[in-house]
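Exercise: predict the fold of this chain.
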Amino acid sequence: MTQPAVVRITDPADPRLTDYTDLTDVRLRTVREPAEGLYMAESSTVIRRALEAGHRARSFLMSDKWLDGMSDVLEGDAVPAGTPVFLADEDVLRAITGFHLHRGALAAMHRPVLPSVHQLVTGARGGAGARRIAVLEDVVDHTNVGAAFRSAAALGVDAVLVSPRCADPLYRRSVRVSMGTVFQVPWTRFASWPGGLRELQEDGFVVAALALSDDAVSLDELAADPPERLALVLGTEGHGMSAAAIETADTVVKIPMAGGVDSLNVAAASAVAFWATRA
């Protein structure tokens, strides 16, 4: 049993808390966190899942009432002895983070190093290799990214790949909406776009772009005879799939619609596509 270093905080400007400041500033945090090699895990459930996935905590921040409920985590083997656990009153926590911390606790986590796309999908780092993967092109809403990861985990998608301009799957809102499944679904980010799709094709994937197109085939048709290795590409919220991605794809697929509706929200579309193509 390890012993964390419990530290009482009374000053919101304490320099030891820089990981936790400006959490409501999305633009700042999405730049800071990757650059500084960290991400935030919010809620006791998400923290537990991050640690179970082998991620390492830098520190924890919570109010006194959550300390006992988190004791099994804080004293477990996944948390090195001496890891700071910052305790503060509710008003101090709000001043530090910019919001009411009602989900139990926060943890500043070390951001893991991402593998290359080739390493991830071929199992070059010791895995079995992927057969069905999801690709998110420029999805900028963190809620949609988190929801897509949760659907991917629930419906057996082997990996998720994100374009260079896609929102960060490890931003705290993405992590929270995914219920921590961003830690269990292997993922990485493309270095180039749409060149990354050609890399998938070289690794034996059939790239299927979900988009409205005159020559699009029905998702039912794709699901009836799926390729051995399939990459489902979903486009950004407002404009859908880019022309460059559609041109690179091997096929274009559309979800059959009724009621005069032509498309679904990207998170909903991902769930439908993952379910239809499940093994």
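Check your answer against the key: The chain has a mean pLDDT of 93.
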